[in-house]
C-alpha cells in the first residue's frame, strides 16, 4: 500500500473521533459563506448580461468568463468538501466526472487572466489600435480557445487515467474520499499534472508581469494618458494577485501530503478543513469583491440588483 493510500485510511479511522457537533459546525461555516458568495457571483453574472454596455465590451465579456469559471469551481469544490465531511465515497466514474469539471474551471481561470492582462496592456500601450485588435469577435475566439485548451488538457488526463488496471479491482467503489489527488492513479498522471500546472502558471505569470512592465513603461511616455495607465497598472496588479490565489488552490493537495507526514492525528483533519476555507473557498469568493465591487460601472447596478439601492432610498426617505 502506498503512503498516500495508507494515510487516507488512517484519516478515515481518525474521522470516527470527530464528533457530530464539529462536523455540523464545519458544514455550516463552509456552506453559509459559500452559498452567500455563490449568490453574489450569480448576481454579478446576471448583471454582466443585463446591459448592452457589458455584453458589447470586451473586458466585461472576459470578466464574465472568469467569474463563470470561478463560480463553477467554487460550487464543485464545495460539493466535494461536503462529501468528505459526511464521509461519503463515490464510484470512480462519478468522482472522475466531478474532478474533470473542477479541473477544467481551475485551468480556465489563469488562462482568462492572461487574456485580460493582454487586453489591458494593448489598451494602454497601443490605444489607437486597441479597437481594431480587441474586438468582440476576437474576444469570443479567445474564450473558445481557453475552454478548448482546458478541455484538451483534461481529455489527455483521462487518457492517462485509462492506463490504470480498473479490471483488477473488485468494485468501482472508491475506498478513499473523492478528490482530484486520489484520481491521479498512476505515476505518469502525476508527472503530467505537475508539469502542466508548472507550465501553466509560469506562462501566466510571465504574461501578467510583462503586461505590467509594459504598462509602467507606457505610463512614463508623454503620449499616454497618466490616469488611464495608472488604472490599468492597478488592474494588472489585481490580476497578479488573483493569479497567485488561483495558484494556491493547485498546491492544496500537495500541501496536504506534506502535512500528512508531520501530523497524524485529529489535528490534521481540523487543519485540512481550515486549509480548505483558506486556500480553496476564500480565493474563489474574492473574485466578486475584487472585480465586481471595484468597477464603477458594475457597482451601482450590482448593488441595485442586491437590493442595497432600494434600502438606501428607504432610509433616505425615512430621514
Structure, described:
With 319 residues, the chain is mostly helical. It is 79% helix and 0% strand. The chain is built from 13 helices and no strands. Helix 2 packs antiparallel against helix 4 (58-85) and helix 2 packs across helix 12. Mean pLDDT is 76; it is low at 1-17 and 310-319.
Task: Name the features.
13 helices; mainly alpha; single chain; globular; disordered N terminus; 319 residues
What is the strand and helix layout of this fold?
Elements: H1 3-14, H2 20-50, H3 52-55, H4 58-85, H5 92-125, H6 130-133, H7 136-161, H8 187-219, H9 226-250, H10 252-260, H11 266-292, H12 298-306, H13 308-318
Compose a concise summary of this entry:
With 319 residues, the chain is mostly helical. The protein has helices spanning 3-14, 20-50, 52-55, 58-85, 92-125, 130-133, 136-161, 187-219, 226-250, 252-260, 266-292, 298-306, 308-318.
